[in-house]
Amino acid sequence: MAANKSVEQELLITRVFDAPRESVFEAWTEAERLSQWWGPQGYELEVKKLELYPGGLFLGSQRSPEGHVMWGKFVYKEIVAPEKLVFVQSFSDEDGNTIRAPFSGTWPLEVINYLILTENGGKTTLTLRGGPYQASEEELATYESMRPHIQQGLVGTFDQLDAYLART
């Protein structure tokens, strides 16, 4: 977390999936699987690159039903298969250069995510926490103002992960 970030600004989501931890981890870390569920409902994800090692890069584009394309990336900080992923998420251009979010000039350039997976009785509990990384006060305020939308979007994305895991 950024030094200027308080615990109250941290986003925290917990979700239980009826799938083994290895399957949930693979859904996050294999390009073919990730492309089946990541992102807003109705969007199509194309994975350009997925390098699963510390310092490695996920780079992909999301196409809306109307044809609008946005690029994004994860830079992996820590990987402990099948229980933990730490990555910094950003909007990017198609070459992976970090850019400002297309919807806000004050959205944080980087958001750090800590993904923890635990298994009990064949079900996996996913805990995602994180928030702005190395952000200015203005970026922190923008993130905080959008928190309900972020949570709603992640719930929808995790609904898609749940449906994907049920199909596989």
TrEMBL record:
Cite the CDD domains for this sequence: SRPBCC_CalC_Aha1-like (cd07814)
Which part of the chain is the Activator of Hsp90 ATPase homologue 1/2-like C-terminal domain?
A: 18-165
Name it. Answer: SRPBCC domain-containing protein
Give the species this sequence originates from. Answer: Paenibacillus piri
Tell me the protein family, please. Belongs to the AHA1 family.
